[in-house]
Design brief:
This protein is mainly alpha-helical. It has nine helices and no strands. The protein is elongated, with a radius of gyration of 20 Å.
């Protein structure tokens, strides 16, 4: 890996830290440089200005996001879909991360006015929509969802719900977990009659794609036949 790449990665990580501290609106190039051992002049050598830096920062975030949403646990297509929703709508308790989420909403709000922002943000949408639609298609093929289920329609619903959840959380303090579990209920309602609910979906607690399914449902506080089958 080249020194040039290492330096740019360091600036991306510094941008994240600076956003956590200052937010987007008040953030300066000097604030970002202060998070590194580099000078402001070095930052300007790599980026033409704040807009150029944030286009690269969004692309940097997208690269990690694209890898994360396809990193599924073992399990059925619906189990993977539920785990994906839990990963994307994973609430944060750390104050710095909450500040970053708010700052990211500010960045998204700039998309109509900043060249290149919207293009990168569309990649987030396209990748997530595609992954959800693919998992829904797999669920149909596996007999978990009925053949009448429209993968693109479900993907659009999931995408819209996720955007709305983060917007409401940032704007009015809506509870991410509560809204997330409502979305998961929507996905479970699509199961064909008698199809068992995946164990990963039987708990309302935060779960990630790295969590392993609890096969007997004990971690969910439920008996084997209680709460893990949708009649």
């Amino acid at each position: 890996m080249s020194q040039e790449h290492d330096t740019e990665t360091a600036f991306m990580e510094a941008t994240y830290r600076a956003l956590c501290t200052h937010g987007y609106a008040d953030l300066t190039m000097q604030d970002i440089a202060d998070e590194t051992d580099k000078s402001k002049a070095a930052l300007h050598y790599h980026f033409d200005g704040k807009d150029d830096l944030f286009r690269e920062f969004l692309a940097y975030l997208h690269e990690g996001f694209a890898e994360k949403i396809v990193d599924h646990p073992d399990g059925s297509p619906v189990a993977k879909l539920v785990a994906l929703v839990r990963r994307v709508l994973d609430p944060v308790d750390d104050g710095a991360d909450q500040q970053f989420n708010t700052a990211f909403m500010e960045i998204k709000a700039q998309a109509p006015y900043r060249d290149g922002y919207r293009e990168v943000l569309r990649r987030f949408d396209a990748d997530l929509r595609s992954e959800v639609a693919d998992l829904v298609t797999e669920a149909i093929d596996a007999g978990q969802y009925g053949e009448e289920t429209d993968p693109e329609e479900v993907a659009e619903h999931v995408l819209t719900y996720i955007h709305g959840t983060w917007t409401r959380a940032a704007a009015v303090g809506a509870d991410v977990v509560t809204m997330r579990e409502h979305l998961i209920d929507d996905l479970l309602d699509l199961l064909v009659e008698g199809e068992p609910v995946p164990a990963v979906a039987a708990t309302a607690g935060p779960r990630t794609l790295d969590d392993e399914d609890d096969e007997d449902g004990a971690a969910c506080g439920a008996d084997a036949d209680d709460g893990v089958r949708r009649e």
